[in-house]
Amino acid sequence: MNYPFLPLIVAAVALLMLLYFFPVSLWITALFSGVRVSLLQLAFMRVRKVPPSLIVNSLITSTKAGLRLTADELETHYLAGGNVPSVIKALISADKANIPLDFKQATAIDLAGRNVFEAVTTSVNPKVINTPNVAAVAQDGIQLIVIARVTVRANISQLVGGAGEETILARVGEGIVTSIGSSVSHKEVLENPDKISKLVLHKGLDAGTAFEILSIDIADIDIGENIGAKLQTDQASADLRVAEARAEERRAMAVAMEQEYRAKTQEAKAKVVEAEAEIPRAIAEAFRSGNLGIMDYYKMRNVQADTEMRDSIANPGGGGSGSVKSGREEGRQS
Predict the structure, then answer these.
(1) What does pTM read for this prediction?
(2) Rounded to whole angstroms, how far apart are CA atoms 115 and 110?
(3) Considering 1, 144, 286, 325, which has the largest number of Cβ atoms within 10 A of its Cβ?
(4) How far is CA 244 from its chain centroid?
């Protein structure tokens, strides 16, 4: 079978492939823009899966801005995963603003994960960062809640390896707490809020960061709680509980000692009763052995009666009169 259109189709496909690998229109645009790039270079970009239009347009933009860059430099940065248009825009902005920034430094910043164009923009137009509420307590115990505005400018030389905004906010918050904590009274801070910003600025908080602090302005100061009075109240309550616990401990010890003394008293009384029970036995034994006569016994009873009489006089209602009478009766009978 004859295919009269087959050669035309093959020729068209070959032409399209040739134009794909050799973008003549892009080469002509670069040539008239003053960019020196060959068709062979464009073909090699296709082979390395680098979009030639991106490289050529970036070269045209940089050349018109007065920058001297090569296609190999841009292609290498693209293959490394960089953002070529962002680097070109950053270099042009830095050049117009007289900010020292070369291609190697810009690509390093871009490959480090930072937006190099935004960094240059922040360096030209400083950025204002609002701190969260920072609570601090003055020496008189009054809490102050401060909100500050930090004006920063990007430090190009520290963008690679420098700390970010979070570090700036943390350091500023620490400086505010230190400044308020060193104030004798909260009224002193309210009267001179610029004292906080001056003290914080002198600490050099932007060291090792990707920013340069231009100013720190106190936006708002509110009075919080009386932390000193609250702490004193809590301490007094704790001291009271400790004192009550110690008093209860002493009371329990006193009760225990009282019970112990009562037990000892009962024990002593029992011993006395036991000893008194031995007296009649001893008297009877003395009678049987002849060591005690009847007169001696009556004399002893008279002495006991006299003693009980004296006790009754000294202690009215003591109940000793009956014993005295019995002693006297026993004396008359003798």
Answers:
(1) 0.56
(2) 6
(3) 144
(4) 34
Residues 17-27, mean pLDDT to the nearest whole number? 66
Q: CA nearest 29: which of 65, 66, 55?
A: 55
Q: Pick from 226, 229, 145: which is nearest to 190 by CA?
A: 145
State how far the alpha carbon of 79 is from the alpha carbons of 49, 69, 82, 102, in Å. Answer: 9, 16, 7, 19
For residues 71 and 174, give the distance between their C-alpha atoms in angstroms, rounded to a whole number: 48
Q: Which two tokens stand for residue 15?
A: 């032409």
Mean of per-residue pLDDT scores for the chain = 81
Dist. CA 311–CA 318, nearest whole Å: 7
Residue with tokens 């960019």: 35
Distance of CA 50 to the CA centre of its chain: 50
Rounded CA-CA distance 245/239 in Å is: 10
Q: What is the pLDDT of residues 233-265, one digit of tens each?
A: 888 999 999 999 999 999 999 999 999 999 999
In the numeric block, the tokens 């500050």 are attached to 148
- Residues 211-227 pLDDT 10s: 888 888 888 888 888 88
Q: What pLDDT does residue 167 have?
A: 87
Pull the structure tokens for residue 179.
Answer: 């400044």
